[in-house]
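Q: Please design a sequence for this.
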């Protein structure tokens, strides 16, 4: 894959977050699933998959199932959450252009969840330091 995985382990729970910059090529989908199996990932958050709704099942197998998904009408955008364990999670893809209502609405939704265990994976389209985090 073109991006580096960032994986965390909370006890025996292994979490992988990937920004894949598109998974329309079969080889990239295979590499993604292989990476998840190789690292023994329990939960994977896939950002910027660029998969259409009808193509989302192509990125799952006997081990990893799509737990939640969102995508655009064309081959753009998209985020999926895959799991191997039973756990509640939220995958967030924030708007690239700031919207006043997004974060207050997100906060309200997150606070309304009653699950004891909650894992959040996100592409917040935000930076910590504008001098360090830029695309040019």
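A: Design:
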């Amino acid at each position: 894959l073109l991006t580096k995985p960032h994986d965390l382990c909370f006890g025996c729970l292994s979490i992988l977050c990937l920004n894949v910059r598109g998974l329309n090529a079969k080889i990239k989908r295979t590499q993604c699933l292989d990476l998840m199996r190789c690292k023994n990932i329990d939960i994977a958050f896939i950002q910027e998959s660029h998969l259409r709704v009808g193509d989302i099942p192509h990125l799952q197998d006997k081990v990893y199932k799509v737990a939640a998904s969102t995508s655009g009408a064309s081959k753009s955008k998209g985020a999926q959450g895959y799991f191997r364990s039973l756990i509640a999670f939220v995958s967030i893809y924030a708007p690239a252009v700031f919207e006043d209502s997004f974060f207050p609405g997100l906060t309200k939704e997150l606070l309304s969840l009653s699950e004891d265990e909650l894992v959040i994976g996100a592409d917040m389209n935000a930076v910590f330091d504008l001098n360090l985090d830029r695309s040019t």
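Q: Thanks. Anything notable?
A: The longest strand covers residues 13-19. Helices lie at 26-38, 102-112.
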